[in-house]
Amino acid sequence: xxxRYLSNNLAFIYLIVGTxxxxxxxxxxxxxxxxxxxxxxxxxxxxxxxxGLLAFVENRIIVTNYDGGYVNVTLRRSMDDxxxxxxxxxxxxxxxxxxxxxxxxxxxxxxxxFFFAGWGxxxxxxxxxDNKTSVGTRHMYLLSSTNSGTNWSAPxxxxxxxxxxxxxxxxxxPATGIQLASGRLIVPWYYSIMTNYYPSVMYSDDDGTTWLxxxxxxxxxxGYDECSVVALTNGNLMMITRNDTKITTFMGISISTxxxxxxxxxxxxxxxxxxxxxxxxxxxxxxxxxxxxxxxFANPDSPILYNRVLGTVRISYDEGQxxxxxxxxxxxxxxxxxxAILPNHQWGLLSENGTSTYYDQISFMSDTLSNLTDGADExxxxxxxxxxxxxxIVSANLVLSWPTSxxxxxxxxxxGPVVTxxxxxxxxxxxxxxxxxxxxSHPYTNHNEYFRLKxx
Length: 456
Fold this sequence. Notes:
mainly beta; Neuraminidase; six-stranded mixed β-sheet; 4 helices
């Protein structure tokens, strides 16, 4: 989270927390809830398994230059799509040392949420760690929640698993991670080797038990760092990363064809301006659940380095190749942001914004796809019913079969008497294709077993 304070390093402006009615440039009205005020910074937003909306922010109690200081990770929750929020809850703190915010991902197989936070000693900021003048170094910690973010485990260090010994500074996100169809969890982060920065991802193939890191994306020109990642419909991953090279003022883009293990050389967007600031990038819709593929991107749309203004939201209908829709929501100062798709199918934006500095406040707003596109586009949910499951008992085996489909359904199993966690039946037994049907067979047992087909 490089140089987050920039020229406004010592600005401590306190505003009244409340609800503000704002007008966007074309006259549309939306409601913004100011949830935190300066000097709190760095928003992360996600939807929990129970439908609750979670907003994470750094509570910056005492801040030294370049992100070292007395900093805690805090959380507020909403169960009504962002209208009302719980009081601030601290989930990671260590005396007067630093816990940074952060990245979050949910394992849909188990319902467990994981939150990643960087840790450092008070005063061990980014520059000191990069230049080897710090007392300590940067560490990575992991928290988990099994009840949709109501309670969190104590932070557990995972530094040795994800950070190589010659890497210096590192920080997660700030971003919301994703889970791939294979079950792999992907969490954006970045690291430095001295003063050279590289965007990367941490990943887990065992439901968050262990974590590894890819080697960061690069084009032999260091300087790209904070990033977000989206899974494309062709199976590749797209990373959009902050550009701190000071050579161009456009976001960097990298592609992974092997689920995040390796990344292509970075190319610069010709559309997505970057003033040197984190951006938010998520998927909104994709077939077969919806008729169109839609990606959403938000950042300060300014081509002037470190001029964090013009908070803009964009939509791509072709997997990030072009951006057909662009709408200005915050004409004044605008900083870090976090997007999420809400249970009511609107999109939500948690962002830094203000009139005196770009981090006067951190506020939440939501809007519809129709408003974002000025009525040109509406959500198009598709009714797709899974094929009918058939079963029979052959000898001592239970055999399940279902018609083939262009949709790659997976078979899941749960053990009774009460259905709790679904697991992949294919991972335990075997799935084969026989006579035009998908077929599943395993020894028949004398207890309640539940099966279902799940689309991607």
